[in-house]
Amino acid sequence: MRDKYQINFMPDGKQIWIHSGATVLEAAHQAGIILNTTCGGKGTCGKCKVLLAPDQREVLACQHKINSDLTVTIPPESRFFRQKILEHGFISEVEIYPAKENAENTTFGVAVDIGTTTVVAKLFDLINGRERATAADFNPQARFGDDVISRISYVESQEKRTELQKIIIDCLNKLTKQLADVAGVDKNSIDEMVVVGNTTMNHLFLSLPVEQLGQAPYLAHSLDGYDIPAEKLGIDINPAANIHTVENIAGFVGSDITAAALATAMNHAEQMTLLIDIGTNGEIVLGTKNKLYSASCAAGPAFEGARIIQGSRAVVGAIEAVVINENNIDIDVIGNQPPASICGSGLIDAVAVMLELGVIDKTGRFIDKTAAKDKLPPKIFERLIQIDSQPAFVLAFKKGKTPAVSLTQKDIREVQLAKAAIRSGIKLLQMKLDLQDDDIQQILLAGAFGNYIRKESALKIGLLPDVGTERIHFVGNAACAGAQMILLNKKARDLAKRLAEKIQYVEIARLTDFSTVYADSMLFVTRDSSP
Ligand code: FES
């Protein structure tokens, strides 16, 4: 039996390599494909059905273990957002409420999510609601800094604000042209655009002042949504087209979270729901349709690979998964290439595995090497080394037992800080609502990074409340799905506005319990005694 298999997903055309014994559901997550998993992967809801070539045999993705190369077709009804969108009646094949009234024969719209790192744009037919093309690119503002704080510090004058606005508008013009070319439509027939993003991206797009976002109390200049003619902003589509920006919630909880909350139906949530988008800045919404709180936590870039000695983003050659295999470990590497770095999902797995094996303890400290010899299996023991006088653990060797990728004590500390920022933010909102972990009925993991982490590992290191894997669901690029709803449905536009007003922002760093909860959250424990 081989230890890695190649999985092709259709009709997406995505291809990944994964370790033997993984489920098709895990492989789909690794490919960034979000399936409907109402029962959380227990095999009881039947919502995650997929078809296996060559005979299109139907299996449950969460139950089917991989032990050969596979071609998997995902039917539309097994995809998370299609189901959600249909459930909530925003979009159906036959009933669309185009934002653009009096549309003539052809009219198109674009939904845009401006991320700090990536910009995603999707073209839709506004008459029938069908998606016609998708395009994405790195946010070119990144040359002024990877994170929002560096970009805020760069913008110290109106001139620089205009410069950054022009850069993002040029990027949207490039993406829009690509969309129109791919779909074979005239860009002048694009009559509507909906733009979401974090508050800094929203302000830079609109050329609003951002200095106040860089210093406490981190206030937005404006939380409002805007409707501006394309011509005025320099967006190269129908000059009279309307560009709609969605309402922000607070200085560090932007319109992308408003859109994600809308797409995941937080405004209808009967069950206690935690929506979380983990990135350099972790954004959280917790509550039910009756009361919703939000917070932002400064996780830092550790989960994006920065500050980790061999860390990287999710690029070819990065370790993306680590699992225990009998008395050793097994890794998955993006592109099935020789391992050269480790990305965020691999990092969370690696720490979970090191805890499980006893290589580190719950305080994050490495086991003493002399004591380790009797306690660890030989193949694990030989992975303990020293790098620059620090204990380290080798995740992958090159030929001849030279370490290829290792994690040091300092790396573990960085993960601990990022994890504590996220977990303490969630815990402080739980305290606000007087909730124990068990009271949270569903956790929705949104955003690029959230899609790729393994639930078991996130729970093991205590990143998320201890609710069991079955209550954790991946929801993919919920911000983009929300922008799509707002583009296609005028009612959704009003709902988004109301939702942004309804979600109460909590400045967690100002709460009296912040320091204690943050310090407690440094421990790698699945469940603790607080709140
Ligand atoms: S049956 Fe697979 S997720 Fe429910």
Which structural traits does this protein have?
531 residues; binds FE2/S2 (inorganic) cluster; single chain; Ubiquitin-like (UB roll)
Based on helices, strands and strand pairing, what is the structural class? alpha/beta
CA-to-CA gap between the ends?
47 Å
Q: What is the number of strand segments?
A: 23
**DSSP helical segment count:** 16
Helix content: 25-40%
Report the C-alpha radius of gyration, rounded.
23 Å
Q: Could you give the order of strands across the largest sheet?
A: 8-7-6-9-11-10
Give the distinct bound molecules.
Answer: FE2/S2 (inorganic) cluster
Given as residue ranges, the uncertain stretches (5+ residues, pLDDT < 50) are 83-96
- Taken from the alpha-carbon principal axes, the silhouette is globular
**Rounded average pLDDT:** 89
Structure at a glance:
The chain has 531 residues and is α/β, with parallel strands linked by helices. Helices cover 30% and strands 24% of the residues.
Describe the structure.
It is built from 16 helices and 23 strands. The protein is an alpha/beta fold and 531 residues long. Among the domains are: 75 residues, Beta-grasp domain (Ubiquitin-like (UB roll), Roll), CATH 3.10.20.30; 112 residues, no CATH class. A hairpin with a 4-residue loop joins strand 3 and strand 4. Helix 7 packs across helix 14, helix 7 packs across helix 15 and helix 11 crosses helix 16. The longest helix is centred in the first third of the chain and has 26 residues. The radius of gyration is 23 Å and the shape is globular. The chain binds FE2/S2 (inorganic) cluster (FES). The site of FE2/S2 (inorganic) cluster has 12 residues, from loops.
